[in-house]
């Protein structure tokens, strides 16, 4: 499994070059990567190569992981660390990929001390200090703004300073107070909309907890950045500072190149 990709990456040695045609084929399946600048695209490839060389992958339930699947996962996993580097993921090594959603047994105690056991059907799970577990869902299988890989790897960053509570370790130049104000205000408004049954831009699952709101907002930040910026500008600004990139600006540049000039000269 992964024989060609392992040869190209040179596992155990500095990663070698992956064929450009393979990069282009995989990147074309992830249209939101077009929001990145040329230097960021090059940096993302470098990180993805290092990520693949340094992590252990396992296909669950007999899933055969192809080179295309591995590159797609690596590119998306490295988006949140584009300006942080691979050290942000140094505390764990495993990535487990299921062919679809999977079931995790849960045990929860209610307020009366009664333990309830149930099976939770999920698309992904990030374990503190342990592996990331993903469902393999190609892009068209999910609506725009929903990205299982980005979601789970955002949780991994959130866990750097403890549990996934929506308050990750911030860069030194960022204000904890500004982060808390932006996210708590947006989260409260979002939960009110969900409770009232109003349609929301973000997946209603974000109302589960501040940690899930951060992860879902991170999905939108990279996939539908302009939308997130319009609806939750303060959250977008905090995520842009945290991730060190501005995909909404890239989205606007891409749209401007695709649009004809407002006053195009008429033909004679």
Automatic annotation (TrEMBL):
This is Zinc-dependent peptidase. InterPro entries: MetalloPept_cat_dom_sf, MtfA_fam, MtfA_N. It comes from Thauera sinica. Pfam families: Peptidase_M90 (PF06167).
């Amino acid at each position: 499994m992964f024989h060609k990709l392992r040869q190209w990456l040179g596992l155990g040695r500095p990663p070698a070059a992956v064929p450009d045609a393979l990069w282009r084929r995989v990147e074309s399946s992830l249209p939101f990567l077009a929001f990145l600048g040329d230097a960021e695209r090059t940096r993302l490839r470098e990180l993805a190569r290092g990520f693949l060389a340094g992590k252990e992958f396992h296909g669950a339930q007999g899933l055969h992981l192809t080179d295309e699947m591995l590159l797609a996962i690596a590119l998306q996993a490295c988006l949140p660390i584009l300006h942080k580097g691979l050290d942000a993921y140094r505390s764990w090594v495993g990535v487990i990929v299921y062919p679809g959603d999977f079931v995790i047994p849960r045990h929860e105690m209610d307020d009366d001390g009664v333990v309830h056991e149930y099976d939770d059907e999920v698309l992904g799970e990030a374990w503190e200090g342990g592996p990331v577990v993903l469902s393999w869902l190609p892009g068209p299988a999910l609506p725009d703004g929903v990205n299982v890989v980005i979601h789970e790897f955002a949780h991994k960053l959130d866990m750097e300073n403890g549990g996934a509570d929506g308050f990750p370790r911030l860069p030194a130049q960022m204000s904890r107070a500004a982060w808390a104000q932006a996210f708590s205000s947006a989260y409260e408004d979002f939960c009110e909309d969900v409770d009232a049954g109003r349609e929301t831009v973000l997946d209603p699952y974000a109302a589960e907890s501040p940690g899930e709101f951060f992860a879902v907002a991170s999905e939108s930040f990279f996939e539908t950045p302009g939308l997130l910026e319009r609806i939750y500008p303060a959250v977008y600004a905090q995520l842009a500072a945290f991730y060190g990139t501005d995909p909404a600006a890239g989205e606007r540049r891409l749209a401007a190149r695709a649009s004809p000039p407002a006053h195009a000269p008429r033909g004679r």
